[in-house]
Design a protein that fits this description.
Length: 253
């Protein structure tokens, strides 16, 4: 009773198939969304590297930046702030309901959706720090602070869905925190189309098929245009050289 607001904890399922769990909740919420002050999403926060924590959806409210920077004084993360609330995770279901929403993320990794994604690969110290950091943000929100304002961000034609919503599979692991022009590749899946094409971690994809790639949205849009099983030109920036390669996308399994 000492808190001004309550907290609802949700565990979503069906995210990879199209945000099914959170989308269903968005249609049938426990309480009306007009009573919901904010939403904090944690998705893939177990592999923190180089002290980096990615904060997505920062543009959904004007309060997030100051609030998060204040709490990070003690936490000490190297923050990567992304304003876009339309991400390949469950905030895309909740934010359009008028709820200021942020997502915490530590990046994709080479064991994603593989049997090698085992407990001993997790960064438990990082998980503990992220949990405490999130808890402090939550305590601010349930306390006496004013209700965060909702900022409407235009979605535009991004072509961005869930991480597995594209039919064509290339086997790249993007660096979602990068601010370079193009798509920075963090790693490639062994034996996948990108590895077979000769794409390497550290490459920056600047063209896929006929489409120039300036960011992750251009890349996901290009995936909708290329055909499975058809050899496709891909141009990467590798250090100071442009390298033209040929990739043959596979069907996503």
């Amino acid at each position: 009773e000492k808190f001004k607001r309550g907290v609802i904890f949700c565990w979503w399922t069906g995210e990879e198939l199209g945000l099914l769990g959170s989308a269903q909740y968005a249609k049938n919420p426990l309480i009306p969304f007009k009573q919901v002050v904010s939403y904090i999403n944690l998705d893939m926060v177990g592999r923190m590297k180089n002290n980096q924590l990615i904060m997505q959806g920062m543009g959904s409210s004007s309060v997030w930046k100051k609030m998060i920077e204040k709490r990070n004084v003690a936490a000490g993360f190297s923050l990567k702030l992304n304003n876009d609330p339309y991400q390949p995770t469950d905030i895309t279901s909740i934010y359009p309901k008028g709820v200021p929403s942020i997502a915490l993320f530590t990046g994709l990794h080479k064991d994603y959706h593989k049997p090698t994604d085992d407990p001993d690969t997790l960064n438990y110290e990082g998980l503990e720090r992220i949990t405490k950091f999130t808890g402090r943000l939550m305590m601010d929100l349930v306390g006496d602070m004013e209700r965060p304002d909702y900022v409407k961000v235009e979605r535009g034609n991004r072509g961005m869905g869930t991480r597995n919503s594209m039919k064509a599979y290339t086997g790249v692991i993007p660096d979602y925190a990068s601010e370079v022009k193009g798509l920075l590749i963090n790693d490639v899946r062994p034996g996948g189309p990108a590895a077979k094409a000769g794409i390497k971690g550290g490459d920056i994809v600047i063209q896929l098929g006929a489409k120039k790639i300036n960011n992750i949205y251009d890349y996901t849009a290009a995936l909708n245009d290329i055909k499975i099983g058809q050899a496709t030109k891909v141009v990467v920036q590798r250090k100071d050289k442009k390298v033209e390669l040929t990739i043959t996308p596979e069907a996503r399994k």
